[in-house]
Every structure is written in C-alpha cells, then in structure tokens.
Specification:
- The chain is 43% helix and 14% strand.
- It is α+β, with helices and mostly antiparallel strands.
- The chain has a five-stranded mixed sheet. A two-stranded antiparallel sheet has the order 1-2.
- The chain is globular, with a radius of gyration of 19 Å.
Length: 265
Amino acid sequence: MQDTLEFTDLLRLIDDRSHAFRAAISAAPDLDVRVPTCPEWTLYDLAKHLGEGRRVWAATVAAGPDATGKAVPQGDWTAPRDREDLPAWLAASTRLLLDALREAGPDRRCWAFWGRSQSPRTATGVARRQLHEIAVHTYDAQLTVGAAQPVPEEVALDGVEEFLSTFGTTDVAWPHEPAVVDYHAAEGRSWRSLLSDDGSRLARLPAPGAQPGPDGTPAVAADASMAGTASELVLALHDRIPQESLKLDGDLRLFEQLMEWDPER
C-alpha cells in the first residue's frame, strides 16, 4: 500500500500525541474522574496504562527478534501517584520507547501479538501500533477533561489503515458467507476488506467506490460500507464513538459480525 507514514514520521507523531496526552492529564482538576470511553478506568488508571505500556514495549523492542513475548522493563517502572510527578514520568516513558525504536531501526524484527495479520512484526510495525494506541488514548484523556479534539488528519488516515491491517486481517477463515466491506474517508482515501474462507485481507482502493485497485482488487460492489472523516472512522473502529454515527450502507450485520469476530480464539 502506498503513502503510509515513514518511520521517522511515526516517531515524530508518537512524540506529538504523547505531548498532547500529557497536556490533557495536566489540565485535569482530578485524576480520579472516570474516563467516559473506558469507564472501568479513572484518568490516573489511563495514564498508568499508557506510561507502563510504553515501557513494556520499549523493553520488548530492545529484546529483539528472539523474544517470545512481551519483555519486562528493568527497575521500578510503576506509575507515580503524585500528580506533580506523573507528567515527567509519562515523558520519560515516551523517551524510552522512542530511544528503543531508534536504536532498533525500522526493519528490525521483534515480537508482536499480530503475527497472523498483514502488519509487519518489525520496529516499524510496533511504532505504528504505538502511535495509534497513544492517539486514541489521547482522545480519551481530552474527552475526560472536556476538551476532546478530532484525531489529527495525518494520524487518523494512517490509523484507519493500521487498525484494519492489524486487527482486521488474518489467515483464519471468515466464519460467515464471503463478503466485501469498504471504508471511505472523507479526505479521499478508501480501503477494502475481503472476507472469505482464506481469511481477511485488506487492499487500498484508489478512490471512494468499488473500482479496481492497484493490486487487482476486484471491481465488485461492496456488501457493506462505512464512511466518515478519517478521525470518525478511526474512533468508531476503536469503539470510541458509535458506528451508527457514521454513514453506513449495505448489510449492516457485517459490522456486528466483524466486531464479534476474534480469529485468535
């Protein structure tokens, strides 16, 4: 697929979204408030998850291609409860992740949980997944403090494709009738999921509508489609906003089936 973000862009945007997350945390009058989009967590829990998770991934990238699972960071890596110390700890978590990714370089292989998907198990694949986890949790934090903003276009366009590639592709057979599902971003980018006994594959469409893609995507009508801004699409795919708030066409049961499908089970 063309026009995916370069490794250096991924690192730049990880830093940018991490800064935006810290700004939201610092603006919160109370870290014990519940996060509407993650109601089992307080804002402190969300910050703890984000910071500790980035340290785990930094250690995992540093462990290299022979690692068989997530690595455990060295030393005391738990989140401080003092809100004055939390932003600095979050910033340090981001630095550890970025340093590990830079040291590894874009093509170094490493452990990742998406082994059966189209997403690569490389430092680039990890950087891409990390960017979009941070971006969505930044939206969570901003929403919690009453300052929710759309996911920036550059991030959101890549985020739709990353989500569909990482969580929506597999070589495990689709357990329903074969289907074609299209996703259209208002910014002019479209994707097609092909669901069959061979699994689920993702292709980039050249423009909104079911036209042949550069990889030979069949010129057939989609069985269902979802359309909105790139930010709306990525937030809906991550279950942050209702899918019904976007433009849905065709057999809407397919979206329910996709949400329920866990090919790793």
